[in-house]
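Please produce the structure of this protein holding phosphoric acid mono(formamide)ester.
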Amino acid sequence: MATLSTKHLLGIKNITAEDIDLIFKTADNFKEVINRPIKKVPSLRDVTIANIFFENSTRTRISFELAEKRLSADVVNFSASSSSVKKGETLLDTVNNILAMKVDMVVMRHPSPGAPHFLSEKIGANVVNAGDGTHEHPTQALLDAFSMREKLGNLKGKKIAIFGDILHSRVAMSNIFCLQKLGAKVGVCGPPTLIPKHIKELGVEVSHNVEETLNWCDVANVLRIQLERQDIKFFPSLREYSQYFGIDKKLLDGLKKEIIVMHPGPINRGVEMTSDVADSKQSIILNQVENGVAVRMAVLYLLANKRD
Ligand code: CP
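Below is the modeled complex.
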């Protein structure tokens, strides 16, 4: 049986194109499962998974929990805001206490880049990164690329543009690594202040012109402005941002070809895109969410086979 090259999913940077291909093929099977009347398989019946979230989440937390339940795993959910972290307990003490209750896998979201990597060196359980600060969000990139592949087939040579707040986005970093491993051409577009200075060294195209970039790409993956990570002003106002960098229906309708529109959510409607774009027939935003469950089932199933 084919297996992943890694025991943990910490980021896309450190996995191979073969790993991504295996995750997609496994997710194809699980997508068929979750569309059956009985959406559950017994694959992880003997596995206990803790979802440990130190940052807010709607999609990722629910999607992992559903994926785990569809695989018949036992699931415990931990939210830092209602835990003993508030009394000063460290990350490692918190996780070791959870593991003492015989937990096999940990899915963690944390505001500090590298927190899941630190954990993976200290504990025996498999660790899945559900987003670490501005660093990586590997399952988001996998579900994004899986959704593009569903619409476009092989992504080799396809042009994918990522719009918006690249500087603060773990989704952008993981998307760039994932799409390049799949042979796609990647561009980023946003205000100069929200594009990392050395991003060209990753081999991506850089533009500050939304209309030009929309005309270049096959897919527009539009990111949220992460005001919660912006302790200084990176642009004068949301109104000005939406005027110069927001995507509206007039822009889409004026393009020479029909492109696919994506957004990882949550959307700031009227800021990075207007509602008529988010809800248009070109938008696959809810397909991304549906595919997230199948992709996460695949990741958990494959990592469970790598348990010590
Ligand atoms: N896309 C994403 O990570 O959404 P949540 O923050 O709601 O999990």
